[in-house]
Amino acid sequence: MCLTPNAPEPILPPELLRLSEANLIHILFATSADRPTTLSLLLVCKTAHQWLLPVLYHTIAFFSAHQISSFHATHDPLSNPHTQTLFPLIKNLWIGDSGDTNTLSHSSDLQYGSTSWPITIIDRILRRCTHLQSLYIVKLDQNEWHRLEGAIPASLESLAMGPVHGPFHINDLTSKPRLRTFTSCHTYMRDDEVRDVVMYPSMRVFRRIWHAGVDVDVWAGGQEACVAKSGTLVEMRLVVCGRGVDEEAMERIREVTGGDARVKVETSEVDGMELVYAEFLEERRAYIASLTQIA
Fold first, then answer.
1. Which of 141-145, 224-228, 258-262 is predicted most confidently?
2. Could you report the per-residue pLDDT of 116-175, keeping only the tens digit for each?
3. What pTM does this model have?
4. To bridge 183 with a disulfide, which of 17, 94, 160, 217 should be the other Cys (CB 3.0-4.6 Å)?
């Protein structure tokens, strides 16, 4: 049995709800991370199948071209019609090399400039993820992004890209998604790109991430003037990542980006991509935690 796109969020069985919240979150999080175990539990009974499917599909990560191709082969509606109802369950999607040095993704073939990226298959998957909320596209060559602009689903609320994602024209997204958050990692953006992002009707948070040592004056100096034109943006966050960012350097950054109170300058000791990957995992954790709430 497969859930329909309009099916309500599953209510956990009473036996699980009697567990303490901490234990329940731990069980669900561990289960969702262990795909073979989850697949086995799907066979226990109809009820288990119903509430585990959203847990299994909520967060999907593709670290290699092989993973993308294999997923597409087993979920192609043309050969497996019932899989069409599974794509709307995907809410949180990562495509590309992971920023987590503790994973095996360091051997990923989805590297910047690589010809291994199966763009056509990624396009098909994105078009079927009609309920997708968060999308992370990492290390995609800047000359390939335009091929995916027409595949971004209208449901998308958060998009993170980089490093060096190339020109980003938010108004060129065919579906006109209700994006509320856009994160650009280690990428120069022209004034017109920044202006279009901050002026986008649904945009609330625009975040730019750089390595420590980058000349922010060159990359973002004066672009606070673009923010001033927006009446809906809540904040533009400039995050400088890495160790050894001294206060004098931060003051210079504040000077060249000041002028609008909505522009926030922050620091992070972890690498920018690790920071974004941690947020991707946190979305899964938050979803699992929400399942413990009894309506």
1. 141-145
2. 999 999 999 999 999 999 999 999 999 999 999 999 999 999 999 999 998 999 999 999
3. 0.83
4. 160
271 with 242: CB under 8 angstroms? yes
Domain range for 115 is 14-290
The residue ranges of DSSP E strands in the chain, in sequence order, are 59-62, 92-96, 134-138, 158-162, 181-185, 205-211, 235-241, 263-268
Whether 6 maps to a domain, the answer reads no
Which amino acid appears at position 187 of this protein? T
Number of domains in the chain: 1
- Bridge-based pairing of strands 235-241 and 205-211 is parallel
Q: How does 221-231 read in b/e, with b if 16+ C-beta sit within 10 Å?
A: eebbebbeebe
Give start and end residues of each alpha helix (H) in 34-78.
Answer: 35-41, 46-58, 65-75
At 183 the three-state DSSP class reads strand
> Which residues are within 8 A (CB) of 287 and not within 5 positions of it... i.e. 6 or more apart?
58, 59, 91, 92
